[in-house]
Design brief:
The complex is a heterodimer of chains A (600) and B (325).
Chain A (H helix, E strand, L loop, with lengths): L7 H20 L15 H4 L7 E2 L2 H4 L14 E5 L15 H10 L4 E5 L5 E5 L7 E3 L4 E5 L14 H10 L11 H7 L22 E5 L2 E5 L7 H5 L27 E7 L3 E6 L17 E5 L4 H10 L7 E3 L9 H5 L2 H4 L2 E14 L7 H10 L2 H6 L7 E3 L28 H11 L5 E8 L2 H16 L2 E8 L4 H5 L8 E7 L6 H8 L17 H11 L3 H19 L2 E12 L4 E2 L16 E2 L3
Parallel strand pairs in A: 1-4, 2-11, 2-12, 15-16, 15-17
Antiparallel strand pairs in A: 3-4, 5-6, 6-8, 7-8, 9-10, 10-11, 13-17, 13-18, 14-18, 19-20
Chain B lengths: L1 H27 L5 H4 L7 H11 L5 H14 L1 E3 L2 E3 L14 H36 L4 H14 L3 H15 L15 H35 L2 H8 L4 H29 L3 H6 L5 H10 L3 H29 L1 H5 L1
Antiparallel strand pairs in B: 1-2
Helix pairs in contact in B: 1-13, 5-6, 5-8, 5-10, 5-13, 6-8, 7-8, 8-10, 9-10, 10-13, 12-13
The chains are: A alpha/beta (600), B mainly alpha (325).
């Protein structure tokens, strides 16, 4: 769920968001300035976002979902988006906008259930529970609920689950998560079933077994305690075997969830209507209060905010789907009690960091010096102020279990604008001469440009000759993802896939995953970290939390492959006729499946 | 005339081919791995290879070009299905056939163009002629002054002002939205009214000034003076002689404006959150979606060539000297 990489469309969307954030960050604190009390989310609020995820039993997995107080049925919600969904085929879905959409039409074996306080529980979605593990977590068994059908009325069976997993091995799928496939068949999992299930071959029963129509058994070569959470990702939602149209499925998927696609105009709009084959008794998470959703995929962030502030006409029934309030209009929103009460706020799972290319910046003292020198608070200001982010002490977001708000090895919370004196002393110790060149790559967005000025200024003050190199935003991650890239430092962002450090530390800091195009942008390859990752991946969540913490401390304090800069925050606006709106800790956006219209 | 048409059409086909070939090699030979742009999180060399294969980027550049050209003439097969001629390839980003995307966006662009055209031609030419007719009077000064003021406006400035007044503050109108003309012409017109008016305001000013100045020039021409001297009615001379003569520069500019608008009214579309050809062009260039960028370029080139030919034909109709030459 990394925000800035993934597909280009997402990159653009974020870049545009970021751009406008930067524009205002330069001029003032757009978290409302002095006009309103600071009610942006603090780390105290983050506490509820970082509780460990519980695994629910059959009772918790049985529908219908708990009614939303005061909910009414009927009407259509207007959904504003800046650009089209990156994908609609579940196997290809990895990013937030498509994940949010997925919860409306797709269903998986498991799903996240969130109570009104934001506590998360993994429950069975089409499965009767979150999964039964055996053999020390190496084997996971799922039983399917009765009465789960696709939009054409076909009952979902274990063959459909098998098909869903096996098609991820084929060339049809290239953009979704790879956790489960890799766990089942190794990192080169495609070789195990090159054509997926499309030419009649299947994974052996020793890997994936479907002994009857209602049972699915996953068999791994090591414990996989996170499987229920991994299976709750949109990328593992069910694609019924009979309905699979391979590449074409990405534009016309079949629904299992409460809504189905009635009309889709790529790049422009989409209409979702009720799926009459969805049975609320089989679903412990979703509701079907409104008659449908009208998506408009061309509404800029500024226009979304303007329309929702005005609250005129169709905007009364509208929501921001995955975009934030336009920072340029942030003070209009937060300083007006009427509009402010129509916002939802929370931490996003993303942490922005100044990544060091360890092949080029080899001296840890130099890395530490740069880390001390960075004025984190100014970087936040360039990204929307206190409603857009918060100074980071470490590399794990406040949304992760085990997050420690006091963890601050570089003293960033005490000195949010950096400590140039300490930085200079470290550089002196390292023997770095005044005027040493340092190449900083940045994405050519307004925010990237604003932050480039801040970084260049801060590092030149401690004696570096900073060579700022702009990279166009569409190819930024491609360029810094190359192993032999010519840059010393670059800003990167990353977020969890589910509330576990495994989905952050593993992909970004595991030395065994250093490769061209991979997300280990610093090229860190530390045996101790690698071993801790291996160990944590096989442990139960509570035990693993300690190991992840060890790994995190080792990474930040002993290696320092990336300077923590800031945690990202979210604030969204909705129309006055929208009911049931709250921040979803699971999606980091508005809780899409609980919404209703106050006056349908 | 037939020879003229054949010659121009043949030339147009050659130019289209050259534009296509030039842009193709310009775009596809840049040192960039376009597969990486479509490669998501956990991008692995295996995934990159799959994407390259899916997009056809694993083939030699000459093969890719040949497939591109044959696709335009005879269609192509993609994993998504058969792409009928004229096939402009498949989007790297959305997986849509480029031609389908363009055709899907075109009705909005056409609506924007036609609606705006009707307004700005009527108002622009009408007020320009009025100013020329009433040259030196208060009417002329008011019209000329207004056109100068309006021409200094920009769509991205005027658009939000109009939206603020009619949509955000008062709710008198809904935010502009495109509806199919065939579904309900009334809803279609109402949804496009604000963009038409805003766009037309800018163009009107331009056409007012141009028609006024060309008319004044024409009114000073010898043949016009002769007609007047012969005792012809002023109104007859104005429209029969001067107006006709002033049309050539207006038609020239109109042809350029039309080809530009039909290739996408970028600022208008972004100001009013509309999804036409202009937005498609900008989005594709931002995401480096080369097949779409190329497709939109070729589509735009087609209109430029088509309208050039049409303008030449209109010249011949307006001015007998052109016909004779």
């Amino acid at each position: 769920m990394k925000p800035i990489r993934t597909r280009t469309a997402r990159a653009i969307a974020v870049a545009i968001v970021a751009g406008s954030l930067a524009l205002t960050g330069c001029s003032s604190d757009n978290g409302g300035g002095n006009k309103g009390k600071d009610e942006s989310k603090s780390q105290k609020d983050a506490a509820e976002q970082q509780d460990p995820v519980a695994y629910g039993d059959a009772a918790a997995s049985t529908g219908p979902a708990k009614e939303v107080t005061g909910a009414k049925s009927g009407g259509f919600i207007n959904v504003y988006m800046q650009s089209d969904l990156t994908h609609m085929d579940p196997g290809q879905i990895y990013v937030s906008d498509a994940g949010q959409f997925s919860n409306l039409i797709h269903r998986g074996l498991t799903n996240f259930q969130e109570d009104k306080d934001g506590n998360l529980t993994v429950v069975g979605d089409i499965a009767t529970d979150s999964g039964q593990s055996s053999e020390g977590g190496k084997v996971w068994t799922y039983k399917l609920k009765d009465g789960v059908k696709d939009e054409d009325g076909n009952e979902i069976t274990s063959a459909d689950v098998r098909h869903t997993i096996e098609r991820l091995y084929s060339k049809v799928i290239f953009d979704g998560p790879t956790f489960v496939q890799s766990w089942l068949s190794g990192n080169d999992y495609r070789k195990a079933l090159p054509d997926g299930p499309y030419k009649g071959k299947h994974l052996p029963d020793s890997v994936l077994e479907t002994p009857d129509d209602k049972t699915v058994v996953f068999k791994f070569n090591q414990p996989r305690p996170d499987l229920p959470q991994a299976l709750a990702m949109a990328g593992y939602s069910i694609v019924p075997e009979k309905q699979d149209t391979k590449e074409k499925y990405d534009k016309a998927p079949k629904a299992l969830g409460p809504y189905k696609i009635a009309e889709y105009k790529p790049g422009k709009s989409m209409k979702l209507v009720k799926n009459d084959q969805w049975d609320p008794k089989t679903d412990a998470v979703r509701h079907q209060y409104v008659d449908g959703f009208n998506f408009t995929n061309t509404v800029s962030q500024a226009s979304q905010t303007k329309r929702l502030i005005s609250d005129q006409g169709e905007a009364k029934n509208a929501i921001q789907f995955t975009d934030s309030v336009d920072p340029a209009q942030m003070s209009d929103v937060v300083s007006n009690p009427e509009t402010k009460k129509r916002t939802i706020q929370g931490y996003q799972p993303y942490v922005w960091q100044l990544t060091f290319n360890l092949d080029r910046v080899k001296d840890k003292k130099v890395r530490d010096a740069i880390t001390y020198a960075i004025p984190n608070q100014s970087m936040v200001q360039a990204d929307g102020g206190r409603y857009g982010g918060e100074v980071a002490g470490g590399l794990l977001a406040p949304t992760l279990p085990g997050f420690d708000g006091t963890y601050d090895p570089f003293g960033k919370l005490k000195k949010p604008n950096g400590d140039p004196e300490k930085a200079k002393a470290l550089l002196k110790e390292a023997g770095v001469k005044e005027g040493t060149k340092l190449t900083y790559a940045y994405s050519n967005t307004p925010r990237g440009q604003a932050q480039q000025v801040i970084i260049k200024d801060a590092l030149e003050k401690i004696g570096f000759d900073v060579q700022a190199k702009e990279i166009d935003r569409a190819s930024f991650y491609e360029q810094v993802g190359k192993l032999d890239n010519p840059y010393d430092i670059y800003m990167t962002g990353w977020g969890q896939d589910w509330p576990s450090p495994s989905t952050v530390i593993t992909p970004v800091y595991d030395g065994e995953l250093v490769a061209d195009g991979a997300s280990n942008y610093s090229h860190i390859n530390d045996k101790q970290v690698n071993d801790l990752i291996k160990k944590a991946l096989t442990q139960e969540p509570e035990e693993a939390a300690k190991t992840w913490e060890q790994a995190h401390h080792r990474i930040v304090e002993e290696i320092n492959p990336a300077a923590p800069v800031y945690y990202s925050k979210q604030i969204q606006l909705y129309g006055s006729n929208i009911g049931g709106a709250r921040y979803s800790n699971e999606s980091s956006y508005i809780n899409i499946t609980d919404l209703y219209l106050k006056q349908p | 005339m037939l020879q003229f048409l054949i010659r121009r059409l043949t030339g147009a086909v050659v130019i289209m081919f050259l534009v296509g070939a030039f842009t193709f090699f310009l775009f596809y030979t840049v040192p960039q791995d376009f597969a990486a742009l479509s490669c998501g999180k956990n991008c692995s060399p295996e995934n990159l290879a799959v994407i390259r294969e899916n997009l056809g980027l694993d083939k030699p550049i000459t093969t890719q070009f040949w497939e591109f050209i044959t696709g335009i003439v005879a269609g192509r097969d993609f994993p998504q299905g058969h792409c009928s001629a004229p096939c402009l390839g498949v989007s790297f980003d959305s997986g849509e056939f480029v031609w389908d995307s363009i055709i899907d966006r075109f009705p909005l662009t056409l609506s924007l163009t036609v609606g705006g055209l009707v307004i700005f031609l009527i108002l622009g030419l009408g007020s320009g002629l009025l100013a020329a007719w009433k040259r030196g009077t208060a009417t002329d000064k008011i019209v000329s002054g207004a056109s100068i003021v309006l021409s200094s406006f920009q769509i991205y400035l005027l658009g939000p002002i109009v939206l603020g007044l009619l949509v955000y503050s008062t709710g008198i109108m809904e935010f502009p939205k495109y509806h199919n003309f065939t579904d309900n012409p009334g809803t279609w017109a109402l949804g496009m009214l604000i963009p038409w008016v805003v766009m037309a305001t800018i163009f009107t000013a331009q056409y007012t000034r141009m028609s006024r100045s060309t008319m004044i020039e024409q009114l000073q021409e010898e043949h016009v003076r002769t007609a007047r001297a012969k005792g012809m009615k002023q109104r007859y001379v104005f429209f029969r002689y001067a107006w006709r003569g002033s049309l050539i520069p207006i038609v020239t500019i109109l042809g350029m404006d039309l080809s530009s608008l039909l290739s996408g009214a970028v600022v208008t579309e972004f100001t009013f959150d509309l999804a036409g050809i202009g937005r498609l062009a900008v989005d594709s260039s931002l995401t480096k979606d080369l097949p779409v960028t190329m497709g939109v370029m070729l589509f735009g080139a087609f209109f430029i060539l088509l309208l050039n030919i049409l303008v030449d034909l209109v010249y011949a109709y307006i001015d007998p000297r052109v016909r004779l030459s």
